[in-house]
Write a structure and sequence with these properties.
The structure is a single chain. The protein is 8% helix and 37% strand. With 676 residues, the protein is mainly beta. The strands form ten sheets. Strands 1, 2, 6, 8, 10, 11, 13, 16, 18, 19, 20, 23 and 24 form a 13-stranded antiparallel sheet that branches. Strands 9-12-17-14-15 form a five-stranded antiparallel sheet, with no helix packed on it. Strands 39, 40, 42, 43 and 44 form a five-stranded antiparallel sheet that branches. A hairpin with a 5-residue loop joins strand 42 and strand 43. The longest helix has 14 residues. 36% of the residues are buried. The N terminus is likely disordered.
């Protein structure tokens, strides 16, 4: 909301010292909606027990917007002692504010005890009445009709002696039928019943526009001790030229205090506080049971959650409306026993072990109280965590581990109080459960490889127990891996055997280990070469014998395997002896495959009776590096002819045209046999 505050101070040189003793405000505001503001409650003690006496409850209201002539009410539950203004009696209540608050002096709904001077000097000769059609709040205003009246004419209210020493200011709403200037009208306060010998003669200090309600407040000029027995207050005509034939309306006259402690107004269980001047952010403090002891409040006779309803209005003409949330106080039975927390358990969502955690794992603390408790305070790994009440008196708190957390057993704390404020705290579980945080991956060393013709044994060590696995392949992209082993407790000395390798082939490999917390490490790229290669300086090449049996290869014995390949010498001419070794197939091939190994497969098929093509691409002497339909068809004929060696072991019902493990093994066994 937008607030416009205009302060005008007029100081005549001869009276400057006097006028500096008080300040006048003329205020025009836009106001927040009724029911704005917030409250918080603190108690001493925080929770009270049934039938307890001497309780002091402190309520603090914070204004959301300007509340000039507005106010609040706080309704005390009927189960508590009634609030009242006499110390030494239960429920004694006071208020204070860093704004200006107080009580209504006159709602201006009646002329009872109001008087106007009817002989010289006169005032209100046209009538002193209540106007129920022109008013600022409630149902009416005090109306003074001046008609050819005199300077110093008075209209005022007589009251029983009142002590105003704790109040520092006064305010009211005023309206005139014609404009008046500064100095035309003053507000007076007197210790006499007829407003004579006034000790407060407060100039309005600013012009008042015609037919406009204007809110004015004054700070008293007199010392507090002079205001201990006030008996009348009201208005005095100071400039007849503007007031003499002017009608004046006055409404909602209030006393206010800034910073001091005063007694508010009461109505049954209601504490009524009027705001003379309160801006956004300023507070009103209500102390119910002020001083404790005999003045303290008496609690209900049975357990309950007591709601102290707070209503507010921003201006006197508004309506009191409930604020968003009213404070509550817990009243419990006599209880001095701290709550017990059991069971208490801690675990993680780590996939390897719920007693271990790595970065990104959730650590969850679960506990149950034997009594209803307030929301407990929980820390995990030194971090504050908000617990959730999962059901009944069971609570759960979860924290996600980060790289900045300290390794080791994850610490936690639980601090809780029951509804009687009995405290309890703990830092350990009841089932001996713990979670150990590990954010460091295993360190790998001493990697070595011992290859044979078709296998390789890889060994390495790690600085912490972890699993074992090898990534391997004929390039550093690998493409194959062993089954991960040692996945339970883990080992620090690792041995993995890779099988099914091709002879005389260079392989890339990297070791891989995961510790028991799930931290993984991949070693650097290494290579090894399987055995089965020829040795010596003589030219080596595969020997392809002439085909027999109608151009078809006679199948080798079923017991022949790639590992049986060896270097042989064969007499090609009477005077020429060459040492040869086969060139084995290494790759899996099918339609779409490319490369030199495809060309060698076509040569193998063409020279072993399975012609890829009779002429052109794929024919003898014109083999290509592209695996197409013709290559597939020739391969399927070979697979069909050697059904028991290639297809039966796989459980296949017919040829596939894919050059995979069993087809490779067969072809390599033929090459090995031919090399003998």
């Amino acid at each position: 909301m937008k607030k416009i505050l205009k302060i005008e101070e007029f100081c005549l040189l001869l009276f400057c010292v006097f006028l500096l003793a008080f300040t006048f405000y003329k205020i025009n505001n836009t106001y927040a909606s009724d029911g704005s503001g917030a409250t918080a409650v603190s108690t001493s003690p925080g929770v009270t027990t049934v039938n307890s006496t001497g309780n002091t409850l402190t309520f603090t209201f914070t204004a959301s917007e300007t509340m000039n002539s507005g106010g609040i009410t706080l309704t005390v539950p009927a189960t508590w002692s009634a609030p009242q203004g006499t110390p030494g009696i239960a429920g004694y209540t006071t208020i204070s504010s860093n704004g200006t608050v107080g009580r209504v002096l006159d709602e201006a709904e009646s002329t009872t005890d109001w008087t106007n001077t009817t002989s010289h000097p006169t005032a209100c000769t046209g009538g002193l009445t209540v106007d129920n059609s022109v008013f600022h709040s409630s149902t009416g205003s005090i109306k003074c009709v001046n008609s050819s009246d005199d300077n110093h004419g008075l209209w005022y209210k007589t009251i029983s002696p009142q002590d105003w020493s704790s109040f520092s200011s006064i305010g009211f709403w005023i309206r005139t039928t014609g404009p008046i200037n500064n100095g035309d009208l003053t507000f007076d306060v007197s210790g006499n019943t007829d407003l004579s010998s006034a000790f407060e003669d407060l100039n309005l200090g600013s012009a008042i526009s015609a037919d406009t309600w204007t809110y004015v407040t004054f700070n008293f000029a007199s010392i507090p001790s002079s205001r201990t027995a006030v008996r009348s207050f009201g208005f005095k005509i100071s400039n007849l030229s503007n007031i003499g034939n002017n009608t004046v309306y006055v409404d909602h006259i209030m006393l206010g205090s800034t910073g001091g402690t005063i007694v508010p107004t009461f109505s049954g269980q209601n504490i009524i506080i009027d705001a003379l001047s309160l801006t956004a952010g300023q507070t009103i403090t209500i102390t119910y049971g002020d001083g404790g002891g005999a003045s303290g409040a008496v609690a209900p006779s049975s357990p309950e959650t007591s709601t102290f309803t707070v209503k507010s209005k921003t201006v006197d003409s508004g309506g009191l409306t409930d604020i968003g949330t009213s404070p509550t106080v817990n009243v419990v039975g006599s209880d001095i026993t701290p709550p017990m927390l059991s069971p208490i358990s801690i675990s993680s969502n780590n996939t390897n072990s719920t007693s271990m955690a790595k970065v990104g794992n959730d650590v969850t603390l679960t506990f149950t109280a034997d009594d209803t408790i307030n929301t407990p305070t929980v820390t995990i790994a030194g971090h504050s965590v908000t617990p959730i009440n999962t059901s009944g008196n069971t609570w759960s708190a979860t924290y996600t581990m980060i790289s900045g957390d300290t390794e080791g057993v994850v610490p936690f704390t639980i601090d809780a109080t029951d509804l009687a404020s009995n405290p309890t705290s703990t830092t350990s579980t009841t089932d001996a459960s713990t979670v150990t945080f590990d954010k460091t991956a295993p360190s790998i060393s001493n990697v070595s490889a011992t290859p044979s013709t078709t296998t390789a044994t890889i060994t390495w060590t790690t600085d912490t127990s972890s699993s074992s696995k090898i990534l391997y392949g004929t390039t550093d992209s690998y493409g194959s891996m062993t089954t991960e082993s040692d996945t339970g407790a883990g080992v620090t000395s690792h041995t993995v055997i890779i099988s099914g390798l091709l002879p005389c082939t260079t392989y890339h490999y990297a070791v891989y280990s995961v510790d028991t917390s799930g931290n993984a490490t991949t070693g650097t790229d290494n290579t090894f070469t399987t055995s089965g290669c020829s040795s010596g300086s003589e030219e080596s090449q595969p020997i392809i014998p002439p085909r027999g049996n109608g151009g078809r290869l006679i199948p080798p014995p079923a017991t022949t395997t790639p590992t049986e390949a060896r270097t042989v010498t064969t007499t090609l001419q009477p005077s020429i002896v060459k040492k040869v070794s086969p060139i084995f197939f290494k790759l899996r091939m099918q339609v779409g495959s490319k490369g030199e190994e495809v060309k060698r497969l076509q040569e193998f098929l063409n020279t072993h009776g399975y012609i890829v093509a009779t002429t052109g691409a794929g024919s003898i002497g014109h083999e290509t590096t592209s695996f197409e339909a013709a290559t597939k068809n020739a391969l399927m004929k070979l697979q069909q002819d050697h059904f028991s060696e290639i297809l039966t072991p796989q459980g296949l019902k017919g040829p596939t045209g894919i050059f995979a493990k069993w087809s490779k093994d067969y072809a390599n066994s033929v090459l090995a046999k031919e090399a003998e």
